[in-house]
Amino acid sequence: MKILIIEDEFNLADVIATRLKRENYAVDICCDGETGLDNALTNVYDLIILDVMLPKRNGFEILSQLRKSKIHSKVIMLTAKTLLEDKLNGFYKGANDYVTKPFHIDELVARVNIQLRKDVNTQTIKNSIEAGDLRLNINTSNLLCVSTNESIDIICKEFLLMEYLMQNPNQIISKEQIYEKVWGIENESESNSLEAYLSFIRKKLKMIGSNVNIKAIRGVGYKLEVCNEKTKE
């Protein structure tokens, strides 16, 4: 698998690349935003490690352009910014994960492995998941309500959350299980992000007219309630 590192601190990029090569990844390095974007658009990468603060083009601009250009490489953003708003900005633009500097190299490698294992795993299962009147296309990230024939695209964390919930319909899933599955770590600091993403998903379910509901179980977690039309009130 091939990884692109877009990081203006060359020494840091070199350390990351050296470690990833020991994990048997092929790695390219770019040290400014314009060169990084050009490489990402003209080559095929399984994953991009993208710094936020870059010369010529910042990481958010690069990420937006990649997603507009239908580049579906996994993206892990690196930044010294710790505010939730900054993390959400990255997720909204299409990031798959977010690592705050300074970080331990083992943590970054673990997150890379998690993201790429998800790619491998989804290739071995069927192309769609169904729950209630919903059908989630794994390849296109399109969520279809079969009863209304309305659909909407969901990406990044929203997609991973919906995929996990639809794989476990009518089951109570703890927050810890969600953190571990979607973020790859058990981290209570992500709780605000989780609530925000679930709120976005609920709005999208209403937009397409689905009778499926994500119910919060106080003090425990969440459940994807799949309603049967015959018993729906």
Strand content: 15-25%
Structural class: alpha/beta
Query: Helix coverage percent of residues?
Result: 40-55%
Based on Cα principal axes, name the global outline.
elongated
Distance N terminus to C terminus?
Answer: 50 Å
Could you please describe the fold and organization of this structure?
The protein has 233 residues and is of the alpha/beta class. It is 42% helix and 23% strand. The protein has eight helices and twelve strands. The strands form three sheets. A five-stranded parallel β-sheet has the order 2-1-3-4-5, sandwiched between helices. It has a four-stranded antiparallel β-sheet with strand order 6-7-8-9, covered by helices on one side. Helix 3 links the parallel strand 3 and strand 4. 32% of the residues are buried. The C terminus is likely disordered.
Keywords:
disordered C terminus; 5-stranded parallel β-sheet; elongated; 12 strands; 233 residues; alpha/beta
Topology record:
Layout: E1 2-6, H1 10-22, E2 26-30, H2 33-42, E3 47-51, H3 59-68, E4 74-79, H4 84-92, E5 97-100, H5 105-123, E6 128-131, E7 134-137, E8 142-145, E9 150-153, H6 156-167, E10 172-174, H7 175-183, H8 191-207, E11 213-217, E12 221-225
Parallel strand pairs: 1-2, 1-3, 3-4, 4-5
Antiparallel strand pairs: 6-7, 7-8, 8-9, 10-12, 11-12
Helix pairs in contact: 2-3, 6-7, 6-8
